[in-house]
Structures are given as structure tokens and as C-alpha cells.
Amino acid sequence: MPFLQAIWIVTRKDLLVEFRSREVVYTTLFFAVSVLLVFSFSFVREGVAIEGAAPGILWVAIAFSGTLALGRVFERERQNETLRGLLMSPAERPAVYLGKLLGILLLLFAVEIVIVPLVAFLFQAPLFRHPVLLLGLLTTGTLGFAAVGTLFSAMLVRTRSRDVLLPLLLYPITVPVMIAGVRGTAALLQADVDLPMARAWLSMIVFFDVVFVTLSLWTFEAVVAE
Amino acid sequence: MTSAFTPLTVLLAAMFTLAPVLIIGAPYESSMGLVQKIFYFHFASWMGMFAATIVCGVASARVLFQRRAASDITAVSAAELVVVFGIIGLITGPLWGRKAWGVWWTWDGRATSALVLWLIFVSYLLLRRFGGPGSERLSAAIGLFGMFNVPFVYWSVNLWRTLHPKTSVVPTLPVDMGLPLWFSTVAFLGLTTVLLALRTRLERRKSELDALHLAMDEDERE
After folding, report:
1. pLDDT of residue B164
2. Chain A partners within 8 Å of B152 (Cβ)
3. Cβ contacts (< 8 Å) between A176 and chain B: which residues?
4. Assign residue A52 a region: left if phi > 0, alpha if psi is -120 to 50, beta otherwise?
5. Which terminus of chain B has a smaller tally of CB atoms within 10 A, N or C?
6. Using one digit for the tens of pLDDT, what is the confidence trace for A141-188?
7. What are the beta bridge partners of residue A45?
């Protein structure tokens, strides 16, 4: 089976399952909105958001809802032992990993399409002043987060306390991407926009994306093997 | 355990006795005063932590790719040392920062990334403890990721240009400060080695004991 085709088959399977129930999209979206609501209680004073709060709120919402989505997507694979079936299929292991990653990414992008305008709306953040750079930061940042997240969720599937352990392992490792995402977004939102700074943070995320995806592809086979 | 263990322990005991003498003998730094003396152990304990990180990462890679069970013992022992030396660094760092910058903790690049590295290895140990059966291979992946985070920690200060003294400070120290510093560093690296050897021996004895228990149970059943 050609490599790219295998990736697409795995992704399509995930999307098909998701389209039938829409469980992950609905729950993750609702969770993200609730997170934003909780933040608004602490960071909006007298109708005005605290300066510089929006980038942090946006990225924390992405990280939290991303963790929830990762947990649910792999819980689904666990219930009927379908992950084992997936690993026994003739598809190459890296293709399985990339297929799962692509599915998670598409899910998270769907969530971001809703929460980014919502952050702009609720916290008066001029998020759409530089849409291309913001899109770059969001895409690469989500990729870095999801790359590690997919690997860790896949390896935690057979572990007892997987729901607690996933954020515990995921957040410290993905901190560089989070820092760069928040700082890059902050550079775009501040009064005098600092474009070179935003680009510098963007290139740092790209660097970490390369590191994380390479490491994940390298270790995925060894980690999921029984 | 190799025969080098006892002489190495004696040598280390001598070095750790001599180190305070050398540190007292080093010149008094004018702006930092007595607090500057923390630096000799602060730097050395971070070096010990980095060495343990690399040992853990390499051992983890061998667990993952060569499926060597023996390397797993080395990896978990090294991870524990990372956490221990990290605690020393994280305690001495704020003591320095209080005097140098007037605050106990700043979110500067080096401090933040060192804290992150330490957290990664705490999560490694948590996974080992609460992950249940099969967590060896999973924690090996964490160890590998942790090791690849080390260069990031090292260069972050140069990238973020913040409060922490830059990495170029150490090679440019005057000789009478540099000598006790490198002496302490070597002593801490030796301590890392000895503790690692002790810890792996303990773990090996534990598995031997388990095997004996199992054999005994089987004998009784027969």
C-alpha cells in the first residue's frame, strides 16, 4: 500500500467515525468555550480585558481542549481494541501515526475556527490584524502539540491511569511550543506590532515541530509494539 | 559492581572535603559577596543533572530500540538522579537570584527551561510509579524526549537574552575562581557516577530477590 494512501485511509476512518457521532467535536468545543468563560471571570475587569491576557487564554484553551480531544479519540480506539487492529494492518507504522496525527489536527483546527474569533470577541483582542502570521503560529503550534500528543496518547492506551498521565507528560514536553506560541501571538497583539519578533517565534516553533515529528516517527513503532 | 567503586568513593570523599576549603580560598567577589560562593555548587549540580539526563536518554534509547532490559535499570536510576540534582539546582538558584536580582524567582529563559527539564523527569518517575505494567517502554520515550530538551535548555539563555549570566561567563572566569568551580564540577560528576552505580546495584538485587521468591514459591507448591 502506498505510504500517502495509507495515511489518508487512517485519517478518513477517524473522520468518518467522528462524522457519525460528532462526539469529540461537540464536547471539545463546548469544553473550550467553558474554559474561555472561566478565564473571562478572572481576566475581565469592568468590561475590559487585562492587557496581554488574550494570547495566554487562547493557547491555554487550545492546550486544554487538545488534551481532551486526544484522550477521547484514543479512548475510542481502546474500547473495541481497534488500535491493535490498526497496528496489525499492512499499513506501515509511521503511516498509522501520521494518519492519526492528521485526524487530530483537523479536529483541533475545527475547534480553533470557533475559539479564535471568540477570544477576539470576548477579550477585545485584535487577532485578525495579521491573519497570515497568526494562521502560521496557530498551525505550527497545534502541529507541535498534537505531534507529541498523538505519540503519548497512543502509548498510554494500555496504561491504567492514562487520563491523569497524558497532561502530566504532555505539558512539560510541549512547553517550548506553548511559550513560542504565546509570545508570538502577544507580539502580534501589542499596541506597536512587533513583526520580526513574531516571525522569530514562528521559526522557533517550526524548529520544534521538526524535532518533535522526527522524534515521534522514530519512536512510535518501538513504543506501540507489544 | 566493579572494583573501581571503593577507590572512587574514597577519592570523592576526599574531594568533597577539599572542595569547601578551595571555595573559601577563592577570591571574594565584590558585588555578590558571600552569596557568590553558591555558584560553585550550583553550576556543579546542574552539570551533574545534565550528565544524568544524557545517561537516562541513551539508556532509554537502548530500551526502546534494542530492547535491553538491563538499560532500563540504568535509565530509571539516572532519572532519579536528574530529579535529585535538579532540586539542588532549583534551591541554590533562587538563593543566588535573591541577592543578584532582588527576587527569588524570575521567569528568565534558563531558569524556566531548567524547571521544565526537571518537570519532565518528575513526570518520568510518576509514570514509572503509577503507569502500571508496560510503563518501562513509555517512560523510555519520555527519557529520550527529555534528553533532546537539553540543548534547548543550554541555548535558551542566549536566545532569550535575560537575567541569567550567559554561558560564555564560565570559560572567562579568573583562574582562582575557575579552579574551585571545575573541582566542584568534577566532584559532582563523580558523585553522579557513584550514586548511579549504587542505585543500579540496588535495582538489580531487587530483581534477583524477586526471582528467588518466585523460585521458593514454586518449590513449596511441589
Report:
1. 60
2. 176
3. 113, 116, 149, 152
4. left
5. C
6. 999 999 999 999 998 888 878 888 899 999 988 888 888 898 899 989
7. A48
pLDDT digits (tens, 9 = 90+) for B115-161: 888 999 999 999 988 887 778 888 888 999 888 877 765 665 455 55
Q: Is A44 helix (H, G, I), strand (E, B) or coil?
A: strand
Domain layout of chain A by residue ranges = 3-224
CA B1 to chain centre: 21
What phi and psi, each to the nearest 5 degrees, are found at residue A92?
-70, 150
Q: What is this structure's pTM?
A: 0.84
Q: Which residue of B has its CA nearest to A174?
A: B116
What cell numbers appear for A131 in the block?
491573519
How far apart are alpha carbons B80 and B46 in whole angstroms? 14
- Distance, CA of B127 to CA of B78 (rounded, Å): 15
Element (H, E) at A210: helix A195-224
Q: B176: pLDDT confidence band, cut at 50, 70 and 90? A: confident
> Cα–Cα distance between B70 and B185 in angstroms, integer?
28
Residues across chain A: 226
The domain segmentation of chain B, as residue ranges, is 5-221
Question: B107, B108, B118, B123: best mutation site toward chain A, by most A Cβ within 10 Å?
Answer: B123
DSSP state of A86: H
CB contact under 8 A, A160 and B131: yes
